[in-house]
Specification:
2 domains; BirA Bifunctional Protein, domain 2; RNA-binding; eight-stranded mixed beta sheet; three-stranded antiparallel beta sheet; 42% helix; Helix Hairpins
Length: 423
RNA sequence: GGAGAGAUGGCAGAGCGGUCUAAUGCGGCGGUCUUGAAAACCGUUGUCCUUCACGGGACCGGGGGUUCGAAUCCCUCUCUCUCCGCCA
């Protein structure tokens, strides 16, 4: 949620910046500001009435104590009148506040200055690339063909047991999942992140705080009996650990990592992109989450990019890092880097990580603040990134490393798998 | 699922219709004392809205009600704890 003080002070700037996200905010922001003006004047009016009423109530108490019943009765009438007026104003105030809030949460975060212009993924800017492209023979197999050949992932059984997008991992395929998870977590732990194992279901308040609601309502699985959402990413529960928390500056940075399964309905995305592991309804991911000082957050973002890059390098996969253009960025983000790895058989770049700085957008919603060294209260910045999402990493490992005698594992993974080849 | 108890400031815990602008203790911060520290003593100690400021208002789990006046009474929701049942 955008900061009200910011909008009040820089409405034109906000409109201009949001245009970069191809979001037309002029009308919305005007309305927010006019609601805010009405809210404040109503508040002032109400406070005055309440102040008078409080005073009279005290006087009535004193008059009773002195036995002056009649004077008290007189005052009582006056007080009733004040309270009635106050009640009306209270309702008015509440309706202004509610309206303002409802509008405010519809506004996406403003993009950082460095965000490139553009509307579609084609407009994203490649920051750098690394790793080397494998040279595969003409008849190279897709990962779903390889998965079937080595019997390590079963899409059909998943289909039978649940539905499409819910595969079974099996044998070395299952072990590979565990290996990747441990490898990713160990890397994060070595960098000072504290491991969490979060709940996979969260309540509405939590989903709202990190920005999934109201924006992505319908993209999350919802358990209607209990009104819980299945998490689309560990970011949601993990960031919410610090909802309504006041930190001390010395407690920063907060570094958390978590493995979780992630659930996404992916409503409306059908087509050839959904083959195999390319797009699933349930997948595994290790997430890193960071809460830090506003002065440092962009350095931290770069640090997190390096973190992810190290992982991909250790997996020996060809990758590129993209800075997302305004039109391709998420609702809550101020700046996002996407990581894509190349799947050599499909000849496709697939997104495996997204690292974002949300600045105060999430912390404002969830009242995540810290007291700085001067005792001043500030909103903290939140950041997170996938490090990494498994399915497309697996797809890329299978496709890129295929050979006649099996699929070779990168050496970094062997301590975790216990074997060096899927055959 | 059944029965009961409870939710108060960073924590513990009193208050159960009118100086509650919430006692007291612990913790935190500042100070005195000390070579330094501890102890002791003194002072201080939340958040939000509003105001240039002085000030004003709100907040005792959430919401609603009674009353001139609610932490205190009533209704309701949520959550926690204890016991029983069921159970990985």
């Amino acid at each position: 949620m955008l900061n009200l003080q910011y909008l009040r002070a820089n409405p034109d700037e906000a409109v201009k910046l949001l245009a970069k996200k191809h979001f037309d905010s002029k009308k919305l922001i005007d309305e927010v500001i006019s609601m805010d003006i009405m809210r404040r004047s109503t508040q002032a009016e109400l406070d005055l009435l309440l102040s008078q009423s409080n005073k009279i109530s005290k006087e009535i108490g004193q008059l009773f104590a002195q036995g002056k019943q009649e004077d008290a009765a007189e005052k009582r009438k006056e007080s009733v009148r004040l309270r009635d007026d106050a009640r009306m104003l209270e309702n008015k105030l509440k309706s202004y506040e509610d309206k303002m809030y409802q509008l405010l949460v519809l506004l996406p975060n403003v993009p950082h200055d460095s965000v490139p212009d553009g509307k579609t993924p084609e407009d994203n800017v490649t920051v750098r690339a690394g790793g080397s492209m494998p040279s595969l023979p003409e008849h190279a197999k897709s990962h779903w063909e390889l998965a079937a050949q080595y019997d390590i992932i079963d899409f059909e059984i998943g289909n039978k047991v649940t539905g499409s997008g819910f595969p079974f991992y099996k044998g070395k395929g299952a072990k590979l999942q565990r290996a990747l998870i441990s490898f990713f977590l160990d890397h994060a732990i070595a960098k000072g992140y504290v491991e969490y194992q979060p709940p996979l279901l969260v309540n509405g308040e939590t989903a709202f705080a990190t920005g999934q609601l109201p924006d992505k309502d319908g993209q999350m699985y919802f358990v209607s009996d209990d009104k819980y959402y299945l998490i689309p990413t560990a970011e949601v529960p993990v960031t919410n650990v610090y909802r309504d928390v006041m930190l001390k500056e010395e407690q920063l940075p907060v570094k958390m990592t978590a493995y979780s399964q992630c659930f996404r309905r992916e409503a409306g995305s059908y087509g050839k992109d959904v083959r195999g592991l390319n797009r699933l309804h349930q997948f595994d991911k290790v997430e890193i989450v960071r809460i830090d000082h506003p002065d440092r957050s962009y350095d931290v973002l770069e640090e997190m990019v390096i973190h992810v890059e190290e992982l991909i390098n250790k997996l020996e996969l060809p990758y590129r890092i993209l800075k997302l253009c305004g039109g391709d960025m998420s609702f809550a983000s101020a700046l996002t880097y996407d990581f894509e790895v190349f799947c050599a058989a499909q000849k496709k770049w697939l997104e495996v990580s997204s690292v974002s700085n949300f600045e105060t957008f999430q912390s404002n919603r969830m009242k995540l603040r810290f007291k700085d060294r001067d005792g001043k209260i500030q909103l903290a910045h939140t950041l997170n990134g996938s490090a990494l999402a498994l399915p497309r990493i697996v797809a890329s490992l299978l496709e890129n490393n295929q050979a006649a005698d099996g699929i070779k594992m990168p050496s970094a993974l062997i301590p975790y798998t216990g074997w060096n080849k899927i055959d």
